[in-house]
């Protein structure tokens, strides 16, 4: 197990990742599942940079646990879903 990933879901509705497969401990979908994505966006709504750092660390841990999964696939799964906002100059 790596990177602060739960070995089992902490609560019945936590949607925490289970290593080494990086599936959701609640619904069984690839983590982060749709429910967790929505919750993360709400939790980090005022600090998207920290959300990116958190998900990047999860991506690094998952890459170690899932060495045969293509890197681009993991990038899409962990950070590719984040909303992009135009930069204001």
Explain the overall architecture.
It is a single chain. The protein is globular and about 40 Å long. β1 and β2 form a beta hairpin. The protein has 89 residues and is mainly alpha-helical. It has a two-stranded antiparallel sheet. The longest helix has 18 residues. The protein has three helices and two strands, in the order ββααα. Helix content is 40%, strand content 4%.
* Helix-strand topology string: EEHHH
Average pLDDT metric: 87
Low-pLDDT stretches are: 6-10
**Widest sheet: strand ordering:** 1-2
What is Rg? 13 Å
Q: CA-to-CA gap between the ends?
A: 42 Å
Helix content: 40-55%
How many helices does DSSP assign? 3
The secondary structure category is mainly alpha
Number of extended strands: 2
Biggest sheet details: 2 strands, antiparallel
Percentage of β-strand residues: under 5%
Overall morphology: globular
């Amino acid at each position: 197990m790596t990177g602060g990933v739960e070995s089992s879901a902490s609560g019945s509705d936590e949607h925490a990742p289970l290593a080494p497969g990086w599936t959701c401990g609640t619904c069984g979908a690839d983590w982060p599942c749709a429910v967790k994505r929505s919750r993360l966006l709400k939790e980090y709504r005022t600090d998207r940079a920290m959300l990116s750092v958190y998900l990047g660390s999860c991506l690094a841990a998952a890459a170690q646990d899932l060495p045969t999964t293509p890197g681009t696939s993991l990038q899409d799964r962990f950070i590719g879903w984040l909303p992009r906002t135009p930069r204001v100059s």
